[in-house]
Design a protein that fits this description.
The chain has about 100 residues and is an alpha+beta fold. The protein is built from five helices and three strands; from the N terminus they run H-H-E-H-H-E-E-H.
Length: about 100
C-alpha cells in the first residue's frame, strides 16, 4: 500500500509563523488584531500568511464589521494527521515484514 502525504499542505504549515497562527486558531477564533498582538508580527506580514492559509483551505474567514475573524478548519488538520497515521502504519507493516530492496 503506497501512502502519500499532502506535500503542499506540509509546505504551508512548515512556516513557523503560519504554524503559530494555526496553533492559536485551534484554541479560539481570532481577528487580525488579536493575531498581531499574539505573534508580534507586522500586520502586512500576518495578512500575507493568513492569505496563504486561507487559499490552502486551512482557515476560513468571518467578516464582523471592519474586522475579519479567522477560524481553523479542523477537518483539514485531521485529514493531514490521518495521512501521517497511514504512513506510520505502512512503515510498521514494512518493518514487520523486513522488506528491503536488493542492491543491483
Amino acid at each position: 500500500m503506497m501512502t502519500s502525504v499532502d506535500t503542499d499542505l506540509i509546505r504551508v504549515l512548515a512556516d513557523p509563523l503560519r504554524l503559530r497562527i494555526v496553533t492559536l486558531l485551534a484554541q479560539e477564533t481570532l481577528c487580525t488584531t488579536h493575531l498581531v498582538e499574539e505573534t508580534g508580527a507586522r500586520q502586512t506580514n500576518l495578512s500575507n500568511h493568513l492569505k496563504v492559509l486561507r487559499e490552502a483551505g486551512v482557515v476560513e474567514t468571518e467578516p464582523c464589521g471592519r474586522f475579519t475573524y479567522y477560524r481553523l478548519k479542523p477537518d483539514v488538520i485531521a485529514s493531514l494527521a490521518g495521512q501521517f497515521a497511514d504512513l506510520a502504519e505502512t512503515a510498521r507493516a514494512t518493518a514487520d515484514r523486513d522488506v528491503k530492496r536488493s542492491c543491483p
